[in-house]
Amino acid sequence: MKRVLLFFATNLAVMLVLSIVLNVLGVGRLLTESGLDVTGLLLFALVIGFVGSFISLLISKPMAKWTTGTRVIGSPRNSTEQWLVDTVRDLAHRAEIGMPQVAIFEGAPNAFATGAFKNSALVAVSTGLLQSMNAEEIKAVLGHEVSHIGNGDMVTLTLIQGVVNTFVIFFACVVGYLVDKIVFRTERGVGPGFYVTVIACDIVFGILASISVAYFSRQREFRADAGSADLLASPQPMINALARLGGLAPGELPQSFKASGITDKAGWLALFSTHPPIDRRIAELQGLR
User: Among 145, 187, 221, 252, which one carries the catalytic annotation?
Assistant: First the structure.
């Protein structure tokens, strides 16, 4: 969850800054001085959308380290750290990717993987996860994160985010232009109404567009779960790990949980969820048996 939310937030911030800077420099005005140049506007949106997305990807690893207080394991200090490094190395070899950096951060049970390139990524686990899971369950979680790297999920998410950004910027500028001409009745060029509307629409459309990106994120979680099952040659360790995260004993899910497992993300809020409900993830893994 952390890596995805961090990517969304950073990407939106970079996109807004680039859009504001270029509009201040007059690029946006050039597109609208003699009417709305749709082709020029689309190219403008394409550049800003993808540049912002790829900048977010390139800085994702240092940003993740900084915001979570992650400590990269250089020389293992104890047997636990040595086991973590050895386990990630083995999983990375099986997944045919380069050895990621291995790190630990303070906090409740959680883990994430990030990085712009498959062969120089980062896998981090929390102290809470290390304390609450057994070795097999931790290995399953590590397999899940290594699968994210092996699947190229961060790059694919970046491409999808870039496409989404392009349409967000394009339609925000179109709405801004129409509001400026119809509501504020600006006759030549564009007025303040254009810039205010564009910034407001960038934020609103960006939030709405995140629904499609969140959908992709949920699908990649299923793939990473299956990837962990493949790396460990059994889905059971990942089932146990998910059950542990859900506060359940390993095994079949109680009927009561199947109803309550989605209540905290019911309704329209579920559209923005980056992870599927745990009961659905376990059910998918049970189907792999």
Answer: 145
